[in-house]
């Protein structure tokens, strides 16, 4: 019986091919491909930067319109000529001068502090410059007043002898002080552009040695401040 089964198993098979059995396997999903596009990244960064700058610009403009800055105020509180005379030296008229002026710088703004990056003061008499001085950078707080002293001392050639003699007889000399100023305004962390206002002070100063004009004294004078904004 066993022999007949063995013979049966050796009989050839002529049917359709039987595919080999396969061991089931787990198909792991492939990781997504990372496509790095430098141009797209640059465009994204540019868009974000542009939106940020536009937003900041709108905020600054809105604050500027809401809190429109006021011009600084400058006053000459006192002025004194301890020396002011003309002498003739080698056929040349020389003006010896010693002028002291006490100014007050006033910041009327509640929201802005003021940074004076440059201050230069020039004294002129009869249209001629007789002296100039410079100052280091200054900072002024909100709603604040600060004193600024100007002293002009020296000797210079002049052609204003006629004006000098007339004003000396009248008892008052008219001296003009011009200031060239560069300022920035600051609110919190936002700084404004630079402003370069023109400051012009016409001073009527008692003549030295004239008791009448000295008794009248110097009158506090507000300077003209133009082109502030």
UniProtKB/TrEMBL annotation:
Transmembrane intervals: 39-67
DNA-binding recorded as keyword: no
Protein's cellular compartments: Membrane
Primary location class: membrane
Cellular component terms (Gene Ontology): plasma membrane
GO terms for biological process, alphabetical: defense response to other organism
InterPro entries registered for this protein in UniProt: NDR1-like (IPR044839)
PANTHER family linked to this entry: LATE EMBRYOGENESIS ABUNDANT (LEA) HYDROXYPROLINE-RICH GLYCOPROTEIN FAMILY, OS01G0574800 PROTEIN
Protein name: Syntaxin-24
Native species: Dendrobium catenatum
Designated gene of the protein: SYP24
